[in-house]
């Protein structure tokens, strides 16, 4: 995608944040309201990113997990696939208003990652860095939720390049911009470090039921 298009997309999304686009001013309860406020259900799976979809062959793929941890690791593809495999079914909620139910993800659970790398007592935040230069941040507590995965498959099929394959984060309780596609580096930090959209008007947390679209 041309740089001009990308700049325009970024400018448009920043303008939406400034204008508070799509805000309903209501909140929902995830226990009783499966669809968060202001969302609509879709059957398809839209593609959203900055327009650069990096092609990372599995032979070249590496994932480094480091920062405020006792045991940093770098996995190649075989080492990643040799980790205990987890499966979880969850819903996707994109800040541009669409939601998609019942996505079956397979991959390595973030709880396994935490057990392995052993965050130090100072670690409180996690930043994802991707092969396209994208970054996004979550709290360590959010990262540690039981439904979070570094996923390689969706509904039993390897995740395609357009959706972040060979591997992407899945953080189901937050808007989908927190789920970094093409992940290459997971960094544990003592201090929070807002990511690409978080410094461009999007909420630092991003809970759909609280409609934390912008902030
Ligand atoms: N690496 C990377 N991850 C990313 C993005 C991106 O541009 N680059 N876009 C985010 C946004 S804004 C959304 S809505 C989702 C879209 O995921 P999908 O294309 O699989 O629907 O990816 C998120 N993860
Ligand atoms: Mo998004």
TrEMBL record:
<protein>
    <submittedName>
        <fullName>Sulfite oxidase-like oxidoreductase</fullName>
    </submittedName>
</protein>
<feature type="domain" description="Oxidoreductase molybdopterin-binding">
    <location>
        <begin position="55"/>
        <end position="197"/>
    </location>
</feature>
<dbReference type="InterPro" id="IPR000572">
    <property type="entry name" value="OxRdtase_Mopterin-bd_dom"/>
</dbReference>
<dbReference type="Pfam" id="PF00174">
    <property type="entry name" value="Oxidored_molyb"/>
</dbReference>
<dbReference type="InterPro" id="IPR036374">
    <property type="entry name" value="OxRdtase_Mopterin-bd_sf"/>
</dbReference>
């Amino acid at each position: 995608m041309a740089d001009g298009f990308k700049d325009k997309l970024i400018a448009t999304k920043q303008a939406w944040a400034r204008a508070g686009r799509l805000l309903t001013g209501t909140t929902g309860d995830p226990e009783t309201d499966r669809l968060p406020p202001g969302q609509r259900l879709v059957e398809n799976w839209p593609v959203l990113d900055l327009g650069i979809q990096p092609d990372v062959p599995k032979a070249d793929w590496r994932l480094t997990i480091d920062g405020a941890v006792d045991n940093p690791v770098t996995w190649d593809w075989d080492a990643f696939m040799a980790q205990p495999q987890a499966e979880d079914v969850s819903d996707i909620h994109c800040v541009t208003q669409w939601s998609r139910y019942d996505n079956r993800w397979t991959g390595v659970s973030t709880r396994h990652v935490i057990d392995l790398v052993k965050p130090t007592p100072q670690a409180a935040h996690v930043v994802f860095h991707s092969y396209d230069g994208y970054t996004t941040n979550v709290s360590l507590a959010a990262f540690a939720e039981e439904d979070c995965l570094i996923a390689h498959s969706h509904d039993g099929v390897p995740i395609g390049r357009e959706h972040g394959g060979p591997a992407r984060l899945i953080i189901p309780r937050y808007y989908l911009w927190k789920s970094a596609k093409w992940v290459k580096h997971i960094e544990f930090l003592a201090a929070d470090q807002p990511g690409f959209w978080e410094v461009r008007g999007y909420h630092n947390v991003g809970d759909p039921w609280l409609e934390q679209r912008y902030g």
